[in-house]
From TrEMBL:
<feature type="domain" description="Peptidase M28">
    <location>
        <begin position="297"/>
        <end position="508"/>
    </location>
</feature>
<dbReference type="InterPro" id="IPR046450">
    <property type="entry name" value="PA_dom_sf"/>
</dbReference>
<dbReference type="InterPro" id="IPR045175">
    <property type="entry name" value="M28_fam"/>
</dbReference>
<dbReference type="GO" id="GO:0006508">
    <property type="term" value="P:proteolysis"/>
</dbReference>
<dbReference type="GO" id="GO:0004180">
    <property type="term" value="F:carboxypeptidase activity"/>
</dbReference>
<protein>
    <submittedName>
        <fullName>Zn-dependent amino-or carboxypeptidase, M28 family</fullName>
    </submittedName>
</protein>
<keyword id="KW-0121">Carboxypeptidase</keyword>
<dbReference type="Pfam" id="PF04389">
    <property type="entry name" value="Peptidase_M28"/>
</dbReference>
<keyword id="KW-0732">Signal</keyword>
<keyword id="KW-0645">Protease</keyword>
<keyword id="KW-0378">Hydrolase</keyword>
<dbReference type="GO" id="GO:0008235">
    <property type="term" value="F:metalloexopeptidase activity"/>
</dbReference>
<dbReference type="InterPro" id="IPR007484">
    <property type="entry name" value="Peptidase_M28"/>
</dbReference>
<feature type="signal peptide">
    <location>
        <begin position="1"/>
        <end position="20"/>
    </location>
</feature>
Amino acid sequence: MRFFSYIGAIAVALSLSACADESSTTTAVSADAVALQAHLEFLASDDLEGRDTGSRGHEIAAKYIATEFKRLGLEPAGDDGTYFQRIKFRRSFLEENSASFTLNTGDDEISLDYPKEFITGPSAYSEKDDVEAPLVFVGYGLVSETFGINDYEGLDVEGKIVVMVSGRPEDLPSEEGAHLNSSKTKFAAERGAVGIINLHTPAREKVRPFEVSIMYQRAPSVRWLHPNGEPNVAYKNIAASAYVQHEAAEKLFVNAPVALEEIFAQLEAGESPKGFDLGVTARLQRASRHEEISSPNVAAVLPGSDDKLKNEYVLYTAHSDHIGMTKDLSQEDHINNGAMDNASGVSVMLETARMFKESGKQPKRSIMFLSITAEERGLLGADYFAHHPTVPLSQIVANVNLDMPVLLYDFADVIAFGSTHSTLGDTVTQAAGQFGIELSEDPMPEQAIFTRSDHYPFVKKGVPAVFLMTGFTSKTEGEDGGEVWGKFFAEHYHRPSDQPDLPINYEAGVTFTNINFAIGQEIANQVERPRWLPESFFSQLD
């Protein structure tokens, strides 16, 4: 059954009139529930074994998406005239029993026990690291002119290992704070540090115990490789790292002018601790093993119709990978199918592409559809494309990201992460309103979701972006959309039960797809390209 809104019916009538307003975003074309279901059931089938980056299952998914692009008559936008942008990745493993952490206090040498008292990860750049340097405490390790923060003020960290508490000040706005938190390595490296030690805190222990982090120690890290084979390691001078358990961290402060207990008390009181030399030297050692895998992004373009604007692009993104097979032997089902995460988003993108192709009116700007790999490994496929785009990045006017729409209830509202930072907020409001759907505020700002999906690498490159999620209000009487959404995350997220036998509401998927299509239509046909709002923190990123 196809979805037709009242406004959609009006659009059918208007399209028959020669006097139709060419700037209108309403259109007769609609998403198809059966098509959404067909795409989702294939991409989330057991045969694809969870679509892990570099796996056979993900290769099949990529070929399926490329075939759909070709069937629709979209132009290839990958490398060498193909739909594929093949990416090489380096998977790095920490060699067993290679990690050591020794403190020299001047009077004594103290060793920290791995992994009980500290953990570390492998290097993506070198096979062996051996770094010995003085320790300097730098508080949170943040720098921001906008928020008047400089935790390095008055400190010399050149050739030294910086020690910082995990997290960020509570008074920072969530999205801006999350971005600054992700930039800690950059701040340290720019000031000449050679290593970073993060301190687990008592507050963090209550949320995520240190023992949980230990459970993930054997997992490899993944980085993408530049075409010349260099790993994407921006700060090669940071050659040592460790994450130290909060009680064991007291050993680092034996000569400090301020006791660690007092530092933790300051954090508890909402204060930002000041930095100082710790008066000890540390030696950190590790060995790493590397292997290479490859996995493709899949890209296609629908050319625009306007002589000038066709050289600008509206970019739709949806990640096609998931987390593969579980190693939990206590479960009978070992396949993480990823129906909602993110077979649903890819299905919406494929239907959106079909709608643009069959709408009967070619958009003024070109539309690019990008299926992205390695999102689950740290937004890697999107980050690679942002560094090595197949069209000039300056000509991408906006990114509409489709990641994990939870299509399990008849939603009455949507949340648009990024809508408060650019003129895309007005675009989303208008598009959703066409289908009787309201735009709601972010119900969980503490999660800083705007920095946690594939649009974020493009945001860091200056591209305005918006990322839609189903809201927490349901049209069904007596149903709490937020409760359904929360139950999915509690019981199915990143688990084998995220599979096509969930009670998926494909008619809700139709509405969601229609809204995203209308967003792209508006961006593609408006005279001015989207722009950051001048007061947005993200308008000022380098």
